[in-house]
Amino acid sequence: MVLPPYPRFKKAVRQLRKLPPLSEQGAVRSAIFLAMMGPKGVRSFTKSLLEIGDHLGTCPRCHNLSEVKELCWVCQEERPPVICVVEEIFDLLTVEEALPGRYRYHVLGGAISPMERIHPDQLTAHELPSRIEREGIEEVVIATGATTEGEATAQYLIELLQDLVPVRRMGRGVPIGGKVQQMDPLTIRYALQEK
Ligand SMILES: [Zn+2]
Questions:
Q1: Pairing of strands 65-67, 104-107
Q2: How far apart are the first and last CA of the chain?
Q3: Which residues neighbour ligand 1 (ion) by CB within 5 Å?
Q4: CATH topology of domain 7-57
Q5: Cα 183 to middle of ligand 1, angstroms
Q6: CATH 3.40.1360.10 given to domain 65-191
Q7: pLDDT digit string, tens, across residues 121-137
């Protein structure tokens, strides 16, 4: 697509394109929007981005989004002793929308992928056995995607955890190749239904 020939504009598009869900068109729209905001608007927009960088990080317990060095809002709540394991923070938000308050979570930080050279030791899965023991967890629900990577990750988790705690895999109604974050709440509720 044709871009206006202004270096600052392109730089803004390049910056915004670093955000995962933004297409090229979306980034161009956003850069136009920012240019129309004027110096004051852009300054406050930028300030909010700086604040994200300064004040947000990941939860030391479950790797959800949290304020720096604090437990996340989920870990600060009283929740049933059931951990739902997801690949990404966005998946956590999707499951939480479908089943609010139902689970504690553990965010893996991705899925096992020999193609992309993502090995189990690069994920946070190794922290799960000690969490299960420390928190008296009674069940683990695996909500990785119905992708090759998600399946490999689920198999790995089952082998890692099955001697410690009952492990259940998210199942029914998940479209093959589907990512959890692309599923609607109804499908998620169905797929995570208790036996
Ligand atoms: Zn947490």
A1: unpaired
A2: 50
A3: 59, 61-62, 64, 72, 75
A4: Helicase, Ruva Protein; domain 3 (1.10.8)
A5: 23
A6: yes
A7: 999 999 999 999 999 99
